[in-house]
Design brief:
Radius of gyration: 16 Å
Protein name: MBL fold metallo-hydrolase
Strand order of the largest sheet: 1-2-3-4-5-6
Distance between the termini: 38 Å
CATH architecture: 4-Layer Sandwich
Number of domains: 1
Cofactor: Zn(2+)
Keywords: Hydrolase, Metal-binding, Zinc
CATH topology: Metallo-beta-lactamase, Chain A
Length: 217
């Protein structure tokens, strides 16, 4: 059984996710923790639940999703995994982090690269890696079929989609990939987005003004 715990960190109100199997093996997704109290909140949970964090993933590498990467690598002894097309995005954070007030941001290097269509494993729990670019050039999401849950990053939100006006963004491509990749998942699939509350594929098909049934695509 896969368990998902969410945390909301940094001024961007980014959702960080910690996933674990029934034996306590865990993976961290998009650690946005920057302030000491945020790091403590995450670490306290790991300790209280007796979890073993063995993997670290970024759905994409915009600043709000990577602020805690270096800390997580150091704290848990894990290697960072990203899609190869996100490497320039990750490296650029060094340049602009001070402009957003994140003085002292620590950069991190990926240990290995994700491949779309390949699975990752948290213990015995398998999640499929799905390539959904548009918000960022190498954006991936992670889908756990047995429980119908998807760590979706900044692709699909409740009633919205990821912004596409940042470097590497592509509005038409994001719409296309949401339709072809995410909307091909079962309607009951729960979307865990990078910001805001959870949603479902069924709700977004019916109501999303950008990609739903009444959207002008």
């Amino acid at each position: 059984m896969l368990h998902i715990k969410s945390f909301t960190f940094n001024p961007f109100q980014e959702n960080t996710y910690l996933l674990n199997d029934e034996n306590g093996e865990a993976a961290l997704f998009d650690p946005g923790c920057f302030e000491p109290h945020e790091k403590k909140e995450l670490l306290d949970y790991v300790t209280e639940q007796n979890l073993r964090v063995t993997q670290l993933f970024n759905t994409h590498c915009h600043i709000d999703h990577v602020l805690g990467n270096a800390w997580a690598v150091r704290t848990f002894g894990v290697g960072l995994q990203i899609h190869p097309e996100e490497l320039p995005v990750l490296k650029s954070v060094d340049v602009y982090a001070p402009n957003y007030g994140f003085v002292g941001y620590e950069s991190s290097e990926p240990d290995s690269f994700l491949e779309e269509g390949k699975s990752i494993f948290i213990g015995n729990e398998e999640l499929k890696t799905i390539f959904v670019p548009g918000h960022a050039p190498g954006h991936v999401v992670f889908y756990h079929e047995p429980t119908g849950q998807c760590i979706a990053g900044d692709t699909l939100f409740r009633g919205s989609i990821g912004r596409t006006d940042l470097p590497g963004g592509n509005h038409e491509l994001l719409l296309e990939k949401i339709q072809s990749e995410l909307f091909s998942l079962p309607d009951q699939t729960v979307i865990f987005p990078g910001h805001g509350p959870e949603t479902t594929i069924a709700f977004e098909k019916a109501n999303n003004p950008f990609v739903g049934k009444n959207a002008k695509l």
